[in-house]
Design brief:
This protein has a three-stranded parallel sheet with strand order 1-2-3. Among the domains are: about 110 residues, 3-Layer(aba) Sandwich (Rossmann fold), CATH 3.40.50.12280; about 30 residues. It is built from seven helices and three strands. α3 crosses α6. The chain is mostly helical. Bound molecules: iron/sulfur cluster.
Length: about 220
């Protein structure tokens, strides 16, 4: 901190250096946020194992003030989308994002979250979470190593450093719009059609039972 605060971009008299911290409001505000980013604790597939490794003692992202992974979106600043995103999961991810308070950031970890990865052609996989959510940082790899994720987290900190409270969206006079929760593909079961689904299933079961009874 002292290095940032003692280099505010203008001259500090020598007698005040290392005694008095002079800075701008943006710098102190950004420093506070960048140094206490709390990621949400959830993972979707193999990339999540690397994310968990990044939190352990060998890599230890607590060094960036991120030691508290929150189980609640209400207390999280950062969503790390770590793993394959299926059509079934995407609405839940958008809901969790909408439940996070501002300021909030999203990091797409790995090939699957960034663009569908090896399952891109799958009927049940979305081709990148950025089709639905605003992504701040992409971390490439399948899976990305803990070092790569840490590099992505440092990139996010650098991005936060460039923000200004005069322009950030969460202080805008316009109310923030929630991201629409997507309804994806015919392979998703629509709960509103549950009666039809029930009738169809019962008819199928009856046909199977009838076939067995006829020998
Ligand atoms: S990018 Fe690779 S390691 Fe990560 S979730 Fe997809 S398949 Fe697994």
């Amino acid at each position: 901190m002292s290095e940032t605060l003692n280099n505010p971009g203008y001259e500090i008299p020598p007698e005040l250096q290392n005694q008095v911290a002079i800075t701008t409001l943006d710098k102190i505000y950004n420093w506070g946020r960048r140094s206490s980013i709390w990621p949400m604790m959830f993972g979707l597939a193999c990339c999540a194992i690397e994310m968990i490794c990044t939190a352990t003692s060998r890599f230890d992202f607590a060094r960036f003030g991120m030691e508290i992974m929150r189980p609640s979106p209400r207390q999280s600043d950062l969503m790390i989308v770590a793993g394959t995103v299926t059509k079934k999961m995407m609405p839940q991810i958008v809901r969790l994002y909408n439940q996070m308070p501002e300021p909030k950031y999203v990091l797409a970890m790995g090939a699957c979250a960034s663009g569908g990865g090896p399952f891109k052609e799958g009927y049940n996989v979305v081709s990148g979470v950025d089709e639905f959510l605003p992504i701040d940082v992409y971390v490439p790899g399948c899976p990305p190593t803990p070092q790569a994720l840490m590099n992505g987290l440092i990139m996010l900190q650098k991005k936060i450093d460039t923000q200004s409270i005069k322009t950030v969206r969460w202080y805008s006079k316009q109310p923030d719009q929630a991201v629409p929760v997507p309804v994806l593909g015919p392979d998703l079961i629509d709960p509103r059609q549950k009666n039809k689904i029930k009738e169809y299933t019962q008819a199928k079961l009856a046909a199977v039972e009838q076939g067995e009874a006829n020998g």
